[in-house]
Amino acid sequence: MQYYIGVLKKYAVFSGRAGRAEYWYFALFNFIIYIVLGIVDRLISGPIEPGQMAVSVLTTLYSLAVLIPSLAVSARRLHDTNRSGWWLLLGFVPLVGPIVLLVFMVMGSDSGANQYGPNPSVQGGDQPPMPTPEEGGQPPVA
Questions:
Q1: What is the pLDDT of residue 1?
Q2: For residue range 2-47, what is the model confidence (pLDDT) as tens digits?
Q3: What DSSP line would sit under 30-49, residue for residue?
Q4: Nearest Cα residue to 19 out of 100, 83, 69, 80
Q5: To 10 degrees, the CA torsion angle through 29, 32, 34, 40?
Q6: Is 114 helix (H, G, I), strand (E, B) or coil?
Q7: Tally of helices (H runs) and strands (E runs) in the chain
Q8: Cα–Cα dist 22/81, whole Å
Q9: Given this model, what pLDDT does residue 125 score?
Q10: What does the alpha-carbon distance between residue 79 and residue 19 come to, in Å, rounded to a whole number?
Q11: Angle between the 96-106 and 57-80 helix axes, to the nearest 10 degrees?
C-alpha cells in the first residue's frame, strides 16, 4: 500500500526512476480498485436490458483521477530501464506495442545510477524504509 500512496503523492512527477515493486504494486492496487468499483457500479445501475449500455460512473471517475499518476509511474519505470518516457507512445502501435512495453516494465533495473537518477532498488532510493523488528519487521541477517 505504501507504493500506491507513494505514486499518488508523486502525482505528476515524470522525472526520476521507479523500481519494479513500485510500478507493479501500483498496477495491482489499481486492478483491485477497478474490480471493486466495477462491482459497485453494477450494483448501482441495476439490471441492464438487451441493447442498453451500462453506466460506469465510479470507474470512469477513478480512471480520470489516476490517469496522470499512471503515466508518470510508467515513465519513471522506463527511466529505471534507461529508456525515455516517450517509449510509452509505443502503446499506440496495435498488438506489438503493448507487448514490447510489458517486456520493458518487467525488465530489471539499470544497475547503479543512470541519466535519470540513482537506482531506486538500492536502500535510500525511492524504496520505502524497511520496518524495524519493533514494528513487526524481520531483524537484519548478519
A1: 80
A2: 889 999 999 999 999 998 999 999 999 999 999 999 999 988 887 7
A3: HHHHHHHHHHHHHHHH----
A4: 80
A5: -130
A6: strand
A7: 4, 0
A8: 14
A9: 46
A10: 9
A11: 60
Q: What share of the chain is helix, strand, coil (3-state, %, to 5)?
A: 55, 0, 40
128: cell is 520505502
Look up residue 120 and give its amino acid: P
Alpha-carbon gap, residue 132 to 86, rounded angstroms:
39
Q: What is the CA radius of gyration of the chain?
A: 18
Cα 117 from Cα 105, distance rounded (Å) = 17
Which residues is 117 bridged to in the sheet? 114
Task: Give the C-alpha separation, 99 to 79, whole Å.
Answer: 18
CB atoms within 10 A of CB 11: 11
Count Cα neighbours of 12 within 13 Å in the Cβ-side half-sphere. 2
Cβ atoms of residues 37 and 139 within 8 Å? no
- pTM of the prediction? 0.78
